[in-house]
Design goal:
CATH superfamily of the largest domain: Vaccinia Virus protein VP39
Order of helices and strands: HEEEEHEEEHHEHEHEEHEHHEEH
CATH architecture of the largest domain: 3-Layer(aba) Sandwich
Oligomer: single chain
Number of domains: 2
Helix content: 25-40%
């Protein structure tokens, strides 16, 4: 079964290279006891001496290693690597994306709609596209992330990469919600783009905005890069951080960006289209999800933080007792169970949910992002509700912060706004 999935995956890579639809390939290798195994290997197609090659970049914890192979040798390498049972592989093409995923029953191949519809250029050396160009330097500098020349400060390198990754994910999700119907340009339309006054205002809430790093980044993407009319509210419980963020917004002329002191569970909010909640501790994540669902938000982006609410309730079935009697394993399992229940609640509420890696695990173990787009009427599928109930009963979960949603039965909490 592994070989079948491997051959099919390699054939799709070959076909995409032949018909020009190849975008990129990502392989997460098996560690195999290496001192510093690569976390992932990124593969792109380039032209060398007039011939197509695949360029490999292996990202290790302390360095990156690059090499190039002609297509035949590259495909042989890929086939060998997949037969070594890596952690996974992903092929992006302009027609369809393909995920090679190992399981206990053997590998399987999963198709997804394409994230990109245009192949990248095949030049050997090309600058990495980034939204954090000179038009972002004012707020990046005010927040202490870059120096006077616009270069990331060494102490802020991880945060800078997190912001770049965040903007990539948000842009992709916005296209999926049709707020960005065409692939956006890499460079902003102007240093400070002016929104079309006839456009509807896109309203967003950042629950737990903290120092405002990602709040400013989201405002920058939508307002300056995309030229959209935006109202973005950062909600933060610490008044000193609210005052500091307000000062930066005033200093940089961030029109449409505001910071409010309050608790996401109780603060007064307008109707909003998008909810952002990144690393809100414990049940604050669930409070944010509940506000977003009840508001009818079309897009929810949540990166959970610490999980404490389910762990004391955990009463595993007898089959799981040999595993979960160990405190460390029970802690980790409670984390996964918490997020799994959140996904099920979101699906019950009418959302399509993707669980993606937000940042690399060596930067923080809290590196998952739940990206939920509303695609169907909420609370209309009793089977989805029953899955929540069964999972809770199986592990003795008596109460969950999102349980109020279980009382819903097809009622529309709030009609989603149109882009």
């Amino acid at each position: 079964m592994i070989r079948d999935a491997t051959e099919r995956f390699c054939q799709k890579v070959r076909q995409s290279l032949e018909d020009g639809t190849f975008v990129r390939l990502v392989v997460r290798p098996a560690a195999e006891g290496a001192d510093d195994p690569p976390r992932r290997i990124l593969v792109r197609c380039i032209e060398l001496h007039g011939q197509p090659h695949l360029s490999f970049t292996a990202h290790h914890s302390r360095q990156a290693r690059t090499w190039n192979l002609p297509l035949t040798s590259a495909l042989d390498w890929l086939r060998t690597e997949l037969n070594r049972k890596p952690a996974g592989a992903f092929l992006a093409t302009t027609r369809r994306d393909w995920q090679w995923q190992p399981t206990a029953q053997g590998a399987r191949l999963i198709g997804h709609p394409p994230a990109e519809t245009q192949p990248p250029p095949r030049t050997h050396d090309r600058p990495r596209p980034s939204r954090l160009d000179a038009s972002a330097h004012d707020w990046l500098r005010a927040l202490g992330l870059v120096d006077q020349t616009g270069r990331p400060r060494p102490s802020a390198a991880d945060k800078y990469r997190q912001i770049e990754r965040f903007l990539e994910i948000v842009e992709h999700q916005l296209r999926g919600c049709h707020w960005l119907p065409q692939p956006a340009r890499v460079s902003p339309p102007a240093p400070h783009a002016v929104a079309n006054p006839t456009q509807p205002t896109l309203t967003l809430v950042d629950a737990g905005s903290g120092k405002g790093y990602l709040t400013f980044a989201l405002w920058h993407l939508l307002s300056r890069c995309m030229g959209l009319r935006v109202r973005l509210m950062g909600i933060e419980a610490r008044p000193d951080l609210v005052q500091a963020a307000r000062a930066v917004a005033a200093q940089t002329g961030a029109t449409g960006l505001e910071f409010v002191h309050g608790d996401i569970a109780r603060v007064e909010l307008p109707r909003f289209d998008i909810l952002l909640a990144l690393h809100a501790c414990n049940t604050a994540t669930d409070a944010a999800l509940l506000r977003g669902i009840q508001n009818g938000a079309r897009l929810l982006l949540v990166a959970p933080c610490c999980h404490q609410q389910l762990r004391p309730q955990l009463r595993p079935p007898a089959l799981w007792e040999p595993v979960l009697r160990h405190g460390l394993l029970a802690d980790r399992f409670a984390t996964w169970l918490t997020d799994a229940l959140r996904v099920l609640f979101l699906e019950w509420a009418g959302y399509r949910v993707r669980v993606v890696e937000f940042v690399e695990s060596e930067h923080t173990p809290m590196n998952l992002l739940l990206a939920a787009a509303r695609v169907r009427p909420p609370f209309a599928d009793p089977d989805r509700r029953e899955r929540i109930v069964q999972l809770k009963e199986a592990f003795g979960i008596r109460g969950h912060p999102l349980d109020p949603l279980l009382t819903e039965s097809g009622s529309e909490p709030c009609a989603p706004s149109t882009p």
